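Sequence only, no structure available. Ideas?
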Amino acid sequence: MRRKTIAFLIVTVISSISFLTPAFGQPNKGKCKNNCTKECPRTKGLNLTEDQKSEIKEIRLASQKTMKPFMDQLRELTAHQKTLMTAEKPNQKEIDKNLEKIGDMMTELAKEKSHSTQEIRALLSDEQRIQFDQKIMRFKHKRGQKQCGRGR
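Reply:
I predicted one. Tokens follow.
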């Protein structure tokens, strides 16, 4: 009986691995990342003209270039925060100063995101702008649910 159970488990594991292997073979398939040629999910379905698409692409690229140093510095500050928090004798003043720096970085990132979003909105017609705003609100709502553990 025990041998049958072990054999069944081995067959199950092997078949699961062979079934899942194709999914791991093509990372990011169907996802829009920084250098993709697909339309951004937030502007997808807005019936953009070619001029609008190219201008939005330029805005997004410029925004990403501006935000990259902030993101890098934010990652460094976050790593440093972990170090400060797990020290043998944590220095609360250092922790507070680092938290203020993290807050400043996050504020700068939010400003840049807001700036690029407003630039994109300025390019859109009234109908497109309404759809764009609805997509952004849906995205924020879904992201909030995932962060609170209520999403998928």
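The chain has four helices and no strands.
Hope that gets you unstuck.
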